Amino acid sequence: MSDKDFGEKLIDAKAVIFYLADIFQKLNLLNKALQGKDSDLISSKSAVVSFVKKLELYLHNLGRREFSQFPNLKAIAGILKDEDILAYVSHLKQVIEDMKERFCDLLNLDIPCWILDPFGVPAVEVHPEIQELIELQSDVIARHAFGQFGRGFWINDDLLNKFPTLWGKVEQFLIAFPSTYLVECAFSKVVSLTKTRNRMDAAAIGDLRLSLTRLKPDIMKLAKAHAERLH
């Protein structure tokens, strides 16, 4: 192999690495968006739909040698050959197809509008069995809570008791695990506990639940209650 041929192979390899670096940076952002204790089916669907649409934009731009979404490739745009671009375009098409297949359940998930905006959707347009929405929309306290907490206001004991039918519909979207993140956190916590304790009592002492919950303890209230018991 001549020095020229060897040099061209090095350039090709560098271009591939730069392209993959740009793609994996975007995949890492998606992965981060799907994780966390506050993640649910609604936020996960938004993240995946947005990512697939971005990939389609990247595909369009890359095909006409527009590298604004690929900063690493942009740095070596002058040495990229047409066959390189075709290879990257082909790969992006495959990534889009794989994403649509992998997340087809999320992409096809139908989220009722009244869950996202319970006070902006006309109650007459929803299914008759959830006409509790009329009562909810008339509840000024609930309206204020929605303005303050967003859809997080659904996770409330008062709402669960006052509007059980609504909660039964909302529950599946807010409680279900959208990814393996919480499962992995639970396994990690169990491994940690078994290393520091003589027996498996993680469930009994509540450590496992505390490590997975999105609820923040009211330290001052707990301390006050504990102090009152001591007296």
Give the helix/strand layout.
Layout (H helix, E strand, L loop, with lengths): L2 H31 L7 H23 L7 H5 L6 H21 L1 H4 L5 H4 L15 H6 L2 H10 L7 H6 L1 H12 L5 H16 L5 H4 L1 H6 L6 H12 L1
Helix pairs in contact: 2-4
Proportion of residues in helical segments: 55-70%
Overall SS class: mainly alpha
Number of helices: 14
| Poorly predicted tracts of residues | 1-10
Overall pLDDT confidence: 81
- Percent of sequence in beta strands: under 5%
Q: Terminal Cα separation, in Å?
A: 87 Å
Overall 3D geometry?
extended
- Number of domain modules: 3
User: What's the gyration radius in Å?
Assistant: 25 Å
Structure summary, number of beta strands: 0
- Biggest sheet details: none
The H/E string reads HHHHHHHHHHHHHH
Fold and architecture overview:
It comes from Trichuris muris (Mouse whipworm). This is HAT C-terminal dimerisation domain-containing protein. With 231 residues, the protein is mainly alpha-helical. The protein folds into 3 domains: 3-107; 114-175, no CATH class; 181-230, no CATH class. Helix content is 69%, strand content 0%. The protein contains 14 helices and no strands. α2 (41-63) packs antiparallel against α4 (82-102). The longest helix is centred in the N-terminal third of the chain and has 31 residues, at 3-33. The radius of gyration is 25 Å and the shape is extended. It starts with a helix and ends with a helix. Mean pLDDT is 81; it is low at 1-10.
